[in-house]
Amino acid sequence: MVEKRDDRVYRDRRQEMVEQLRRYGINNSRVLEAFLAVERHLFFDPESRDYAYDDCAFPIGCGQTISQPFTVAYMTSMLVERCPAGKILEVGTGSGYQAAILDYMGYSVYTIERIPELLKRSSEVFSVLGLKIHQRLGDGTLGWSDHAPYKGIIVTAGAPEPPSSLLEQLADNGVMIIPIGGSVGQRMTVVTRSGGRLERESFHAFAFVPLIGREGWGE
Ligand code: SAM
Question: Does 213 contact ligand 1 (Cβ within 6 A)?
């Protein structure tokens, strides 16, 4: 089959994005492979696709953003190093890109979004790509108890504290990756459950949109 010009251009841009991620210290081969394969531009409106491979966050409507590629790669690396396989809950579907990366890496992905418009758009992209990602509309701070426990929980919005409902839905030896802090900036935080004990470690600083919900920030 002859490759279309746009596909070739976007593939070259994905390759450049992956090289840049490597320079920034992302070195997990499964993560880099997923970034090379998943067509990030499909998670953008057609008129914004030229920006899809720039290393910055980008508005996706409804006051929300698709996270910067480095941020997605950083969180995904933290997850894969501690939890290489299994069932993952993502809180904050947004564009759907993070969920698609996890799906490509072989995880079984459950994702929750609180804004109906974003849920609808991401489900359309998943269906175009033929991805079997489980989606739900709702307050993700309360988790998705029907499918718990999860080996990994990845929260892609900034929270004041790890929501206790999510901690309850974490499997033994499971790991939660969550930005914790105030409205201006947060520290990427890893919470690990082992037996009855929860351990918490903080890493680099980021700036996420707020996690809004019963166990997050108010409206
Ligand atoms: N993971 C997304 C992606 O790949 O495009 C980026 C997420 S964006 C930075 C944060 C998302 O979290 C927004 O879409 C926002 O509506 C959503 N969000 C905030 N609070 C939420 C909650 N309590 N439950 C579910 N989604 C929430």
Answer: yes
